[in-house]
Amino acid sequence: MAWDTEGTRRRLRDAALVEFAARGFDGTTVASIADRSGVNKERLYSYFGDKKALWELVLATELERLASSVGLAGVGLDDIGEFAGATFDYHAAHPQLGRLLQWEGLQGGPPADAARRTTHYREKVERFAAAQREGILDDGLDPAHLVFALIALAAWWQTVPQLAEMITGAGTNDKHERTRRRQFVVEAARRIASPSRT
To answer: Rounded distance, CA 51 to CA 4, Å?
Structure first.
């Protein structure tokens, strides 16, 4: 019988995602990933090299999934609102990503796949800056700060759900509240980016 290499790799990646999101890089062991996946540690080492390489692969994979799910068709105010809304949706459906990013920030050191990630975000910043020069978006805001603020506006609900519940009185499983939060994110993003009228 042939060995299902891709299936085994996927089980290891999926198990690593759960473990890393729950415990971070330092708190996760190769043994815990192997136990969760039902695959022996030797396979993990042979497929991925070591825990650090697997950590970087898991984080890069999750960020690629986010990038492919959350496009920015244009840079008009409706586009900005929908970008924020789609970012909210993605983080709501994949709360592990926010946890991975928090762990990455807490552990210090260089971020995983930093060059490619930086290029991706700098392209967004340049698109926002171009829209500001054209008068579509508020040119009084630093475009890099604007990109960061919109991502934070959309993702923070899932990053600290306990705080959102204390403030709003509704939990993450409240579908009506989730709809209201998304509507708020979309409208707030449009207002933040809207050219000031004086």
So the answer is: 21
